Amino acid sequence: MIDTIPYSDNELLKMVKEGNEEAFRQLFFKFYPRLLRYAVRYVNDEDIAEDILQDCFISFWERKSSIRYISLSSLLFCMVRNACLNYIKHNSLIENISVDYVFDIGGEEKLYSLDMQLSPDEILFQKELKIQISKAISLLSDRTRQVFVLSRFRGLKNNEIADRLNITTKAVEKHITKSLKIISSYLENQSLDTKYFIIVSLFFLS
Known about the structure:
Oligomer: single chain
Number of strands: 0
Distance between the termini: 43 Å
Number of helices: 10
Number of domains: 2
CATH superfamily of the largest domain: Winged helix-like DNA-binding domain superfamily/Winged helix DNA-binding domain
Strand content: under 5%
């Protein structure tokens, strides 16, 4: 047993790799609340999110000896993200994900300063997906597109956009709502697999 002191992530990972169950317990309670909130935002169901997290932590423990010394938070969030996306894909729930929901999750990953690496398959699709996303954004009017880019890609708050463009915050909100509806409508016309990979790529657009 280890003392219940605030070990660093690297220290916890080292002890877990050595088979220390108490270190694994501390790791679990340290990350579980954030991971659960993160998973719920994907699957929109706390019970399902809890099941996904349980599977992820079991997999983490079973694979502990082969885990490399990398960012522990990025590893755990990446495992949960992939598990959630697999659940969504296998249960044909792509249509239930709204575009603004996707961007909000992307913002959360940035908030945690996560280094979420793309898989080789995702990298393969990246070029074509960016073209598809550009096509969706090109459907927006000039002002709506300008507001959308400042909001979703530049990270500006509504009042900051309003000041920059000399419009009201209410107008900013209307432009964002309009842009999300147009992009959602565009995605609805894509095949299931294409929409799945578009959603994946949206998380990583810089």
